[in-house]
Amino acid sequence: MSKTHNIAVIPGDGIGPEVLREGLRVLDKAAALDGGFSFHFTSFPWGCGFYKEHGQMMAEDGIEQLQFFDAIYLGAVGYPGVPDHISLWDLLLKIRKSFDQYVNLRPVKLLEGAPSPLVEEKRNIDMLVIRENSEGEYAGAGDRLYRGQPEEVALQTGVFSRKGTERIIRHAFEQGRRYGKSVTSISKGNALQYSMVFWDEVFAEVAEEYPDVPSYSYLVDAASMFFVLDPGRFEIVVTSNLFGDIVTDLGAGLAGGLGLAAGANINPSRKYPSMFEPVHGSAPDIAGKGTANPLAAVWSASQMLDFLGEEKWGSAVLRAMEEVMTAGSPLTPDMKGNATTEDVGIAVAEALQKPGAHER
Ligand code: NAD
Ligand code: IPM
Ligand code: MN
Question: Whose CA is nearest to atom 10 of ligand 2?
């Protein structure tokens, strides 16, 4: 009997709907080729357009509506006309936090055929950044005092709990053990003497429980330099919410650009749905032109396939992407091509082959 994966789809704003359409095309193609599973997609019209009409970013009971899906597939959130801190906090961050998606998995891996500005280190870019996704610098704790007055003060407090810090670091070591990879912590204990010294202490404690997993610790400034000069030294990287946000855009720049970078927001206990989305935003500068690169959304779909237990198809999607990139066409302008979003989606769907026919 064929099983059905129930997926909530939130196309969102700007290029979100454009790139997600291609990800859905590839998912449907995988299901059709397999024959053993299918997708049931339910689309939600939430985002900045919805806000303009209803004064809120999602339905009042939006979180309840989402909670029984097997996964959430999201495009991007944010558009000029709605302040970013409202659009993001009331939709994307609300979902990540409500569903305790505390692990943000962001591969920084140079796929075959993908462009990179690095020449010498090109083949040595293969890391998995595990970003803390529930608290830290993005906990949302703070205040604005004396608004508009000369003595105005803004406070934004980092929140690093033992539970939150330990679980993300432990998750990284579990992955290190599972895949035989080293784990590197990125922090900033020299300047942030409370939060990051605590982070470093927890990292050292947890590392002791995994003597079989090589571990390293870097300050974020130096780590950023080594991302560029010697990316091969990083395998699994674990870092805080803010640093993870920044170094994964840097990583995206090294491994094909933002049009290719994918991310998964995981609730490891599976009590709540996990969410899959490109790392990039709504790209208002190119929205509506049909030229956005859908490969990041397609890679996120591959991560979703892995999560749903269809790992062979997750890998097959990456191979199909590599085939298109290696052929050099069709590719969107960010990858020096002149194809449309749709051309690329169709090409990846066509390149997709049933696993087994074409194993590497
Ligand atoms: P952005 O990622 O949207 O765009 C940065 C640059 O990369 C732009 O020049 C854009 O054209 C380019 N780019 C991004 N994705 C691309 C793709 N698929 N193909 C080709 N080029 C691509 O970041 P931004 O401009 O800083 O933010 C725009 C909006 O998106 C803001 O409202 C921001 O808050 C929001 N945002 C949302 C998310 C999210 O939903 N996960 C992530 C980042 C930013
Ligand atoms: C990302 C985005 C978000 C984040 C923003 C839009 C809140 O930049 O997913 O990288 O920092 O988490
Ligand atoms: Mn970001």
Answer: 245
